[in-house]
């Protein structure tokens, strides 16, 4: 089982930064990031994962600044620079950063992740995303956001180029022989000369091949184009589903797309996003969950709910029944429809509805004693809903510490999770092969 | 006197990587970079400086791969990721990385350097350059390189935006008060809404104001537009002149441009690029210089000379007199003309000419005993040729170690250089004020 930690030191639950056990002053706090990385490594986690965005969203709703998802926040580190620093204070844990393909250049992204992979000695990962937020476009000289199809087409070319640039040099291209003066072997370099619709990139990259061959590529899209891009390109998928049945369907769907790209089912790992509140007892976990929800003022809860269903919820009485919204026009995504359906089915009030969605960010939510949480994780894993989990554990850092103290030993006892790191690189730990160089056989000889 | 160390662990002299005392395997070698940073910090240097380029140049001349300038090289780290890692193993030394304005986005650059400044607790610097190399253009979907005037106009807007984004938030914009739930103060954010010819950037930046207010900005251009951009924008200039007279002229020229931007002469520091070979005795220094030149095969020396003067020098006898080239058409820059003039004046052979330019990369070159080198440095400093030096000291690391062991104490005895770090940030150490926020008075109140 793969375990990944959401490494945002501000947490993921809307109200958790206010909890008494949460770290003080979480905005751009390096010491917190270092401590969190060390906690995750002590827990034998596979990797730290940093979400990202390129704009301060909700600028009109200051109460939401500390809320919603980490990528919307105003006081964050640029992920690759942060992970490069964290590489120096950790030894084993993988370091995965989100970087958009919509407003960056493939040569630059290939360079930064190659550099991070060299610095971390093979622990780098790139979460490949496209940026849909219209506000971010305004920070990159675009009048409006790039249309979806363009973004995905661009992302596909982008990934091809980045991988091609990582293969610029054979692994043994740099003999650096003082005696002969032979610094590099000119037969072991390949210029890419990529010419596509969106990009033309000559290459080669000005960095030796990364220790992992290619840093591990993550993707997250669950649309049809997103799933196809993942099957063609990704090593890991970060999936968000609220029920095991839907997660199983997505799992089978994604794995089923691999053969046409000549890939085995094992070559793509699917991590399910989950918020976990684990405690000594079920009651304690429930108590913590209530404390967290109480830290969210109704105005923030309503704003958050409004954003999720795409309807201004402050127009309805807080403690009145959830309104029968026009179902067809609800929500920017399927998440909104799911929330409305649940609220109507369970006859929730507006307040009860926002409290119901706060902890899990509309995703999966495991709460309870160590055994209860381990049971759920084991079931999802064994019943092919996922290959592992991307864990948000409010409150930072106590939630993750408690998970590691209580649940990790339980998973280890059941033989589901490592007791020591065995691999040298992130790929090793994830059970992913080091990619062959597409231009050179492993010995360094040109393949074409 | 300001001292900056060229932090490229491969050195700067064409042949130095082959020297017996040079580090083995210098390409993308993290351990070397860490050791070099610690050496510079032990020597109380103000800062480490990383040159950069975005392409492997001289792909047709493999012998030159380890030669010429660090920005041409194939096996290098991306500078910001490297410095972020080095921030974790140093405490005082400044960390200055080159990033081009030609093929990057101001929002992204503002973010990365803000992040590096937070990670290093106020030790970040950005060397703002434009990219003239046509080969780099081919890595960024450009058919040909961006014309010079466009590049500088773009760089000017770029710098304005980056500084504006660094001022997005008042220094006290994030109270992060758990009790009240007030994460940030919405009156202390300013959206830039920059609309220029090359860029439209809304802002605000998604990072708190950097510890230094603005990371220190370096620039290097010595053309008319380059000098004007430095006077308008830079905190430090990296200047390359071969004689004290020319350096004095440039120094007076640059400082003289400051008043019209409302700046004092002290607010721009000029660092002269210099290659230093210091030894116990003059003879030892001469001997080391000869050893280094002997490590450069004639083919490499000829290639290098050909590049500098823009003429294929292998067409002339190696030990024959330097040819009387058509002076008007020599060299891509003024450097070529200076080399030809010197060779003809001193009646050098072709071999003698390339050996004469190898160590100093056509710039300033100090060689000799500790007292001799300190004398030269003192004279340049006191006679207003510079405010300090950007030092390349072959061989890496022994050249820098010898400089610190021999020359630094001599400079300290003369009262020219610090014996301990006194400042908390790079700006403090350089004697540069922390910039006011253009949108907020220091107390955090909106200034307009």
TrEMBL record, chains A, B:
Family matches, as Pfam families: Bac_luciferase
Domain Luciferase-like: start-end pairs: 22-292
Molecular-function GO term, any one: oxidoreductase activity
Name of this chain's protein: LLM class flavin-dependent oxidoreductase
CDD domains to which the protein is assigned, alphabetical: Nitrilotriacetate_monoxgenase
UniProt KW keywords: Flavoprotein, FMN, Monooxygenase, Oxidoreductase
Enzyme Commission number(s) from the entry: 1.-.-.-
Family: Belongs to the NtaA/SnaA/DszA monooxygenase family.
């Amino acid at each position: 089982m793969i375990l990944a930690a959401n490494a945002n030191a501000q947490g993921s639950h809307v109200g958790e930064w206010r909890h008494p056990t949460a770290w003080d002053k979480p905005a751009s706090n390096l010491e917190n990031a270092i401590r969190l990385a060390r906690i995750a490594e002590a827990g034998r986690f596979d990797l730290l994962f940093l979400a990202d965005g390129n704009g301060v969203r909700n600028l009109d709703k200051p109460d939401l600044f500390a809320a919603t998802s980490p990528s919307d926040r105003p006081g964050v580190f640029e992920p690759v620079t942060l992970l490069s620093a964290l590489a120096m204070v950790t030894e084993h844990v993988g370091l995965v950063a989100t970087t958009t393909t919509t407003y960056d250049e493939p040569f630059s992204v290939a360079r930064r992740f190659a550099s991070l992979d060299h610095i971390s000695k093979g622990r780098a990962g790139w979460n490949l995303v496209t940026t849909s937020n219209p506000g971010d476009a305004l920070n990159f000289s675009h009048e409006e956001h790039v249309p979806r199809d363009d973004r995905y087409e661009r992302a596909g070319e982008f990934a091809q180029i980045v991988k091609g640039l990582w293969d610029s040099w054979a692994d043994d291209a740099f003999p650096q022989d003082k005696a002969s003066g032979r610094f590099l072997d000119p037969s072991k370099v390949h210029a890419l000369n990529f010419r596509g619709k969106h990009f033309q990139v000559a290459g080669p990259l000005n960095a030796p091949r990364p220790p992992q061959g290619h840093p591990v590529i993550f993707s997250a899209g669950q649309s049809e184009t997103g799933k196809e891009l993942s099957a063609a390109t990704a090593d890991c998928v970060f999936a968000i589903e609220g029920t095991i049945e839907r997660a199983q369907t997505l799992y089978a769907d994604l794995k089923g797309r691999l053969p046409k790209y000549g890939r085995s089912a094992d070559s793509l790992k699917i991590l399910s996003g989950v918020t976990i509140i684990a405690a000594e007892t079920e009651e304690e976990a429930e108590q913590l969950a209530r404390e967290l929800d109480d830290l969210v003022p109704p105005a923030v809860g309503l704003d958050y709910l409004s954003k999720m269903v795409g309807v201004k919820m402050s127009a309805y009485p807080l403690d009145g029944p959830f309104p029968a919204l026009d179902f067809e026009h609800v929500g920017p995504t399927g998440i909104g429809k799911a929330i409305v359906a649940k609220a109507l089915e369970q006859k929730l009030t507006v307040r009860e509805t926002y409290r119901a969605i706060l902890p899990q960010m509309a995703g999966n939510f495991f709460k309870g004693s160590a055994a209860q949480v381990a049971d759920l994780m084991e079931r999802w894993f064994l019943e092919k809903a996922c290959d592992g989990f991307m864990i948000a554990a409010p409150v930072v850092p106590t939630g993750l510490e408690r998970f590691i103290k209580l649940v990790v030993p339980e998973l280890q006892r059941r033989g589901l999770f490592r007791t020591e790191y065995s691999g040298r690189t992130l790929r090793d730990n994830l059970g992913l092969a080091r990619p062959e160089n597409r231009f050179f056989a492993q010995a360094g000889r040109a393949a074409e």
